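Example 3.2
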Amino acid sequence: MNDWEGILPSEEEKNRAVMRILDTAMPQKKSIWRELYRTVNAVGLRTLFFGVGDCFFLAVLVLCVCLIPAAAVMVRTIYLASCLFMVSPAFYALAHFLTMWKEYQTRTLEWKQTWRISFQTIMALRMLVLGAVSVVGSILLCAVLWSLSGQVVSFVWMLSVAFSALFLYGGGSLLCQRLWGMRAVMLVPVVWIVLSLIPVTWESASIWLMQIPVYVFLLIAAVGGGVYFSQIYCLVSGRSHIQALL
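Structure, written as tokens:
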């Protein structure tokens, strides 16, 4: 029996081998926040948005020159809710469309797919950053419009309208992009603009929007936020494929 002791594995070695097999067969559930944090540390925000600074500048320029002045003119009218619904996701939509279009045309997306870090995680992190900036922008926009309106409506109501539009657009955009690829990046903004123009050109619809209470818009925002973060989870967890984004 002693001759076999140097050949056969010990109990400790057997246990380690079994644990390695179990870890390989049943990997631990990935934490999306840990994965995103690791990606930020490895890549950095500057590299994450490398080469698309002009896209953000153009998005801000369109907002400041065209959309925000138009909203300021209509803020004292029955079209306030319609303006908020259209303008709130404008920066997110413009920045997302312009960056994706530029990277698609310059083939930068193909280059990013060669990174050792997950391309889906990169895209999810970018969407989260754009979403966070858009939330801050929506709060500032509502504060300015609320002041210009003479505080005739509740500031909380204006925020609920802005957040419902932003989260609904963000969630719908990511869902459509995951299902239909690059075509959705171009199609979703067009559909959103058409739908947003309906209450602007239809007075009865604008009046109806102004009468919707806060809790309804907050419920819409919650649903849109749920869809948005579920799509982020699908990207980071690998449940959506890179090809779905192109």
